[in-house]
Amino acid sequence: MTAGPDREPLDRSFFDRPVLEVAPDLLGRVLVRSTPDGPIELRLTEVEAYAGPADPGSHAYRGRTERNAVMFGPPGHAYVYFTYGMWHCLNLVCGPEGHPSGVLLRAGEVLHGHARAHQRRPKARNDHELAKGPARLATALGVDRRLDGTDVCAGPDAALAILTGHPARPAQVLSGPRTGVGGEGATHPWRFWIDGEPSVSPYRAHTPRRRNSTRRQVGT
Fold first, then answer.
1. What is the DSSP string of 111-180?
2. Is 64 helix (H, G, I), strand (E, B) or coil?
3. Considering its fold, how many domains does the chain have in total?
4. Beta strands 191-194 and 40-50, pairing class
5. Which residues lie below 8 Å from residue 83, measured CB to CB, with a gap of 6+?
6. Is 145 among the domain residues?
7. Is residue 206 part of a domain?
8. What is the pLDDT of residues 165-220, one digit of tens each?
9. pLDDT tens, residue by residue, 21-50
10. Which of 82, 184, 210, 219 falls between 20 and 30 A from 41, CA-CA?
């Protein structure tokens, strides 16, 4: 890995802060995924913050489970979950141990390893679509549950690492409601993205699931 100020791995203290500080500060940072066939690097362009027990949208809202246990551990670790029976999503744990919160990595611009990313995302029509959305990002990087709990602060040769990169300027950072979150957390402006970036995913409001039911007629 080439040396330089922008190539320094972020240390644990970066993640040991309130999630609403960490999330926008991740924009412009570089995520490195080391694989047996070579590394893939991408610049983070879109993230979402989830604030644990204080946030109805968080997986940790109702307490610790086998699925979300990593969120209750030390900061600077990857929380990977499987959703809709087909997709993985990658999060980074923030805040002090025992106070679960995390940042969902929603989108990024692939900088190196395009061919490897395209092999995993053959339906991507161009480079901007390789990691445009959290499931696409995880797929392009080859991230699945086997990486749940990975220490992203273990060093540049770890399976996952976050480099200093070039943080987005405050004027470039926009915020708004999180994608697909309903209920009490629907309006929290905890989605952050870099203005004008083509890799940022489209916003979609929460759509309640409809249950098929037969209406009963009650008579006398």
1. EE-HHHHHHH-TT-SSGGGTTBSHHHHHHHHT--GGGTT-BTTS-TTSSEEEE---PPPGGGEEEEPPTT
2. coil
3. 1
4. antiparallel
5. 89, 135
6. yes
7. no
8. 999 999 999 999 999 898 888 899 999 999 999 999 999 887 776 555 433 333 32
9. 999 999 999 999 999 999 999 999 999 999
10. 82
